[in-house]
Structure formats: C-alpha cells, structure tokens
Write a structure and sequence with these properties.
mainly alpha; 6 helices; 2 strands; extended
Length: 113
C-alpha cells in the first residue's frame, strides 16, 4: 500500500522530495519501498521513540481538527487550497500555546533578529 501511494505521488506532484519521514513499520522498511525511494533520504524515527516526530503529528492533527474535519470541500484542488490557506493562518495569525500564546511568525522574527 505504501508503494502504491508514494510512486504516483512522486510522479504526479512536485517530483521526488529530498527527504521522507516515516516510522519503522514493515511497510516502510521493505525492500520494495527502499527501491522506490532509492534517491530520497529517509528520516526514520527510532524504535519505540514516540516523541521523535511528535511535532509534525501534532501539526497535522491540528490541521485536521481545525480545518479538514469542519470544512467540506468539493474537490482535491479546493482542499489543497484550503489547507494552504490554513497553514498560512496557522503560521501568521494563530496563537500557539507552546510559545506562550504567541504567533509563530512573530516568534521566528524575534529569534532571527
């Protein structure tokens, strides 16, 4: 199933990514998947290390809860545009609890200065 999802995605979207993050399940470590992704760096979480990708899991959970599940769309194009807009909102207008209820863009700008 992973191969059926990765290969068309690479061909039809933006080409091969530089890196793919995954867990260490058999579907992600099988030779067929490694062959399909041979020119892509693999970032794999450590075994039994549930915190390795907690930030990206939390990010996608937030997008699903605050946008996807409550916003009906009629097409994949509409969904993609909506997610793109939500990510812009998420980074530029939405306060985040983990950074003292501040906006990520503001926090990033302060660090960069």
């Amino acid at each position: 199933m992973v191969i059926k999802a990765i290969c068309p995605s690479i061909r039809l979207s933006h080409g091969k990514p530089e890196i793919i993050n995954s867990d260490q399940g058999g579907q992600y470590t099988c030779p067929a998947r490694e062959e399909a992704c041979e020119e892509i760096r693999i970032s794999m979480d450590g075994r039994s290390r549930c915190l390795d990708n907690v930030w990206i899991v939390r990010f996608w959970r937030t997008i699903k809860r605050e946008y996807v599940y409550i916003t009906p769309t009629d097409s994949v194009k509409e969904l993609r545009e909506g997610i793109k807009d939500y990510i812009e909102y998420h980074n530029t207008k939405r306060p985040h609890q983990d950074i003292e209820h501040r906006i990520p863009r503001t926090k990033y700008t302060e660090i960069d200065a």
